[in-house]
Q: What sequence folds into this?
């Protein structure tokens, strides 16, 4: 490997991970060390920030748990609705699927934060506020464009003979989907699932306006709340500890599902 | 068969179409604390107010500036990262996974992290500047530069996405094209200009359009990192709409701001599309 390339790689990793490593350093530092980093301190490391975060009210793992519920629920709901729709789209007339593609791409491009006020009104009138699982409804809806586009391109790639053979065997539509087609698109389903999960885990404006009960906050909202209202009184040490704890599950997820994430993000770009 | 489409269509209608219709209706009504939170038709007064609202136009300019600068930087950086990851070297897969991490984290998680990194006087940047004998930077309290800090945070988080799209584009380019041109004695720079850029162009357009639309709706980062300050200098349109609804409790006007933002975004997309098309024609001729 050339020296020049090695330099670029180091630069890239510093750029990507540097800010996170700084948070890691902050989370283990006592406040004096943060305020005067070059002072000669006898002891500069501490677990106190983690202790404060983990024994808070509610304890930090609660937010992780809430986000996990919302993420898992949204993923399941999205797939239940998107898989049949994606299949129907690949088997419908070219004109219909063409129009549907344009509509879905438009919806995927739409900055959904602009929808929050009307969605909040829906939540109020249907009494959906402060229910974790209620969040899965808008999340599943916002995930439909991506999910349908990814899954329908996977269905399209399956050979049509396979389906005809299944029909000759006397399988009805449901059996065909359940035993033949859905198992074959498993890679695309995994990609979709992980992308939807990440979206639901990270979503902020809707969770911010729908949930006010501090025991039900999802991770992104809880993080923003730690910041409080003043720029000057943010407890950065505790916050950094929360950053580290909140990042670990996502970092593991990215490292484990790297291939699925990459193929999910790029298959749309390559084919469309 | 079409019955299978119905649940998805209903869900999309509920979350995209119903809100937009609701905004059209609300933007024609006064609905705020002053009216006792009852909607009263006000004959387009919201729209007149929007056209004369200096804060709306300032936020529109700020949002546009933010979106254009951060997406521009992102694409350049993403191109460099994609070119690096497109070459063959050991550990490439691991590095690609690590560069994805910023994209996967919730925006709010690092938004406060940036606030700490740019903090005056205790943040690392200030400390280093102080150590080198430099002046206090006051990045987040200086209205003329604090928006650049938000651009930085946005570029850090969203570059991996653009890089992946461009990398996917690079991998569709057959390598014999390069070999053919190299046989003619062309330099690496010529190869880049004659092969890479033209063939990558649709992917750049895709990443550009997608990221521009998202950057135009920026909310999480601004709300948490600066709260729109100092002096409203980093406030985005989405944040202004949010403040109108949640802080000023003026739902009629908030809906009007959202509609206005949406119309501006559509015009921006159309302008971009036309520019890209003409650029494509020029590249095609060259």
A:
């Amino acid at each position: 490997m050339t020296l020049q390339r090695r330099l670029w790689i180091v630069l890239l990793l510093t750029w990507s991970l540097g800010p996170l490593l700084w948070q890691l350093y902050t989370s283990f530092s006592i406040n004096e060390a943060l305020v005067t980093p070059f002072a000669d301190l006898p002891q500069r490391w501490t677990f106190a920030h983690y202790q404060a975060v983990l024994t808070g009210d509610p304890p930090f793992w609660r937010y992780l748990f809430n986000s996990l519920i919302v993420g898992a629920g949204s993923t399941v709901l999205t797939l239940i609705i998107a898989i049949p729709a994606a299949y129907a789209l690949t088997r419908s007339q070219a004109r219909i699927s063409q129009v549907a593609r344009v509509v879905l791409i438009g919806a995927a491009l739409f900055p959904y934060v602009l929808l929050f006020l009307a969605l909040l009104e829906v939540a109020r009138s249907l009494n959906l506020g402060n229910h974790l699982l209620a969040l899965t409804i808008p999340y599943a809806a916002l995930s439909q464009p991506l999910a349908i586009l990814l899954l329908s391109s996977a269905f399209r790639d399956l050979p049509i003979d396979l389906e005809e053979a299944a029909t000759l065997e006397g399988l009805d539509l449901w059996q065909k989907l359940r035993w033949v087609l859905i198992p074959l698109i498993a890679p695309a389903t995994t990609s979709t699932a992980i992308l939807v999960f990440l979206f639901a885990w990270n979503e902020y404006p809707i969770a911010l306006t729908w949930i006010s009960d501090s025991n039900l906050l999802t991770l992104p909202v809880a993080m923003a709340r730690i910041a409080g209202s003043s720029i000057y009184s943010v407890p950065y040490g505790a916050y950094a500890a929360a950053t580290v704890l909140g990042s670990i599950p996502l970092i593991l997820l990215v490292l484990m599902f790297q291939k699925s994430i990459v193929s999910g993000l790029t298959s749309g770009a390559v084919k469309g | 068969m079409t019955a299978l489409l119905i649940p998805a269509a209903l869900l999309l209608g509920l979350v995209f179409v119903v809100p937009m219709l609701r905004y059209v209706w609300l933007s024609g009504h006064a609905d705020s604390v002053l009216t006792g939170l009852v909607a009263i038709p006000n004959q387009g007064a919201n729209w007149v107010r929007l056209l004369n609202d200096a804060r709306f136009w300032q936020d529109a300019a700020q949002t546009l500036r933010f979106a254009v600068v951060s997406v521009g930087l992102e694409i350049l950086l993403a191109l460099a990262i994609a070119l690096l990851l497109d070459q063959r070297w050991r550990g490439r897969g691991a590095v690609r996974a690590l560069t994805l991490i910023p994209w996967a984290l919730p925006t709010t998680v690092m938004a406060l992290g940036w606030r700490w990194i740019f903090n005056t006087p205790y943040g690392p940047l200030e400390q280093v500047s102080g150590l080198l004998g430099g002046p206090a930077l006051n990045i987040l309290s200086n209205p003329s530069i604090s928006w650049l800090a938000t651009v930085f945070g946005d570029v850090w988080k969203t570059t991996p996405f653009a890089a992946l799209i461009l990398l996917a584009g690079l991998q569709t380019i057959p390598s014999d094209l390069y070999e053919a041109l190299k046989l003619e004695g062309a330099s690496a720079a010529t190869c880049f200009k004659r092969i890479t850029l033209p063939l990558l162009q649709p992917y750049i357009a895709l990443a550009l359009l997608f990221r521009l639309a998202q950057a135009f709706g920026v909310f999480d980062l601004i709300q948490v990192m600066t709260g729109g300050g100092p002096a409203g200098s980093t406030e985005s349109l989405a944040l202004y709409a949010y403040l109108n609804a949640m802080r000023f409790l003026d739902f009629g006007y908030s809906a009007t701001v959202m509609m206005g933002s949406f119309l501006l975004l559509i015009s921006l997309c159309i302008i971009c599309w036309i520019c890209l098309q003409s650029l494509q024609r020029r590249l095609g001729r060259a």
